[in-house]
Design goal:
By secondary structure, this protein is α+β, with helices and mostly antiparallel strands. It is built from 5 helices and 20 strands. An 8-stranded mixed β-sheet has the order 2-3-4-9-5-8-7-6. It has a 6-stranded antiparallel β-sheet with strand order 1-11-10-19-20-12, with no helix packed on it.
Length: about 280
């Protein structure tokens, strides 16, 4: 089965099971937006994991894979918006709070460079292939993830056909399909996906913030500009600033990326039974 087909099937199965897992998972915030949690890998102990809704398939650090003696084969993944060589293997078991996954397909790569870029040691990136196992609220204020929760009836819709989280926001009168990425704390837009004239013309990056965002987005980063008022789930981000890239990735089915802490919100709920999200300030 192709990866996209597998992830779509996994999303449908997970939606049917999303109500079964309940409980809480303590988290730590690094740089006030990166969500770090202790997850259990039987045989490997506790691992320092980044909870990342911008990742579709979970990524395991090579050192943990070596410790577990995982059998792997060559492959490739995307990390920090760049293609990276990776190995592909199966993790016998992973526990993330009340979510327990057996025989999980994972990418295996050396996370040392990513850990250095982000300034924190990472053993794993937990992606949507695992997180769809239960609806949950990411509560930044209380520093916890609460599983088995639901959204209100008027919550903003998520596209249930995609393996990642995509909702519709509005920039002025222009609707935007935005991927929700908890591993990002700003707004990123693809110029080739936004109607002509909506975004200001490109100009060089000047600020330390711009340079940091560019290091994360890669060499295609064009500029950081003020794009006006952004509306998502009834919340207004006045005078929003966005990192603008010339072109979207070939397989991207969205117009940009939004990090919840870039809005900012105190919590965000992902309800996989209703295919909806709800944000609170």
């Amino acid at each position: 089965m192709a990866l996209r087909g597998f992830l779509t099937w996994l999303a449908l199965v997970a939606a049917a099971q999303a109500a079964t897992a309940t409980g809480t998972l303590p988290i730590r915030l690094h740089r006030d937006y990166l969500v770090i949690a202790d997850c259990d890998v039987p045989g490997g102990g506790k691992v320092n994991a980044l909870i990342d809704t911008g990742t579709t398939r979970t990524i395991l650090d090579r050192r943990i894979a070596d410790r577990l003696r995982l059998r792997t084969e060559p492959g490739q993944t995307i990390a920090l918006n760049r293609p990276m060589p990776a190995r592909v293997g199966r993790l016998p078991e992973l526990r993330v709070g009340p979510i327990r996954v057996l025989n999980l397909p994972v990418f295996v790569l050396d996370l040392e460079e990513m850990s250095g870029t982000l300034g924190i040691h990472l053993d794993m990136l937990v992606g949507m292939d695992v997180l769809r196992g239960a609806s949950f609220t990411l509560d930044y204020h209380r520093r916890q993830i609460v599983f088995g929760v639901h959204t209100r009836e008027d919550a903003v819709a998520l596209d249930p056909r995609l393996p990642y989280l995509v909702l519709v926001g509005r920039l002025g009168s222009t609707p935007l399909r935005l991927q929700v990425d908890t591993g990002f704390d700003g707004l990123l837009l693809y110029r080739d996906r936004v109607p002509s004239g909506t975004l200001p013309p490109p100009r060089p990056m000047q600020t330390p913030r711009s340079r940091e965002m560019r290091s994360m987005a890669g060499p295609a980063a064009e500029t950081e500009v003020e794009v006006g008022d952004l509306w998502i789930d009834g919340l207004r981000l006045a005078g929003a600033r966005a990192l603008v890239l010339d072109r979207a990735p070939e397989d991207a089915q969205f117009d940009g990326v939004i990090g919840p802490r870039g809005i900012p919100v105190s919590s965000i709920t992902f309800d996989f039974e209703r295919s909806a999200a709800q944000m609170r300030r």
